[in-house]
Design a protein that fits this description.
Strand order of the largest sheet: 4-3-2-1-5
Number of helices: 6
Distance between the termini: 195 Å
Radius of gyration: 63 Å
CATH architecture of the largest domain: 2-Layer Sandwich
Largest sheet: 5 strands, mixed
CATH topology of the largest domain: S16 Ribosomal Protein, Chain: A
Helix content: 55-70%
CATH class of the largest domain: Alpha Beta
Number of strands: 5
Structural class: alpha+beta
CATH superfamily of the largest domain: Ribosomal protein S16
Strand content: 5-15%
Shape: rod-shaped
Amino acid sequence: MPVKIRLTRHGRKRYAYYHVVVADSRAPRDGRYIERIGSYDPNTNPATIDLDFDKALSWLEKGAQPTDTARAILSYKGVLYKKHLLGGVKKGAFSEEEAEKRFEAWLAEKEAKIQAKKDRLANEYESALKKQIEAESKVNQERAEAVAAKNSELAAEVEAAKEEESATEAEAETTDAAADTVEKEPAETPEKEPEKATEKKQEPQDTKKAEPASGETSEEQKPEGETSSEK
């Protein structure tokens, strides 16, 4: 029976993770499997791989054929390199101790590369975060300066309005005071003029009354003859 080491999909849309399984090549991709030997999560950076090293090596030695993605995972974890070293031991190219020593050196180098990548990503994230904070602080400072300038302009406008209002009130008070003085000064003069006018008008009326009416003569003006005859 042909056996393969492959991946089965799990998770949700756009956030999938996979199980590394040993299954019959004739079984569906996400169907039944013989044994689960690990997991693979590509959503992290670097990707998270959890693999049972001994079981994967055992199945490879039994003849299981990994798919392309499963082969990349096994190579990343050093399973394929360990199988290669054990093949050299079987052929007598070097001893088992030498094979173990070479594998430990390779594993240390691999771990150093992974750690360097993690550190680089962390530094990039920190630098990006620092730049973002600086940009945000700059924007906030510019906004604060703009608000302060606007507030100063508004304060200046309010002060100018107050000064203008006080000046207007002072001018109005001065105008009212001047109007009061103008009304009080000519109040006495017009009262005397009508009296004089009435006096002047009354004088000719008295003279008219003193004159005798037409056709009438006074006793003094009668002739002497008329007076004697009456006697």
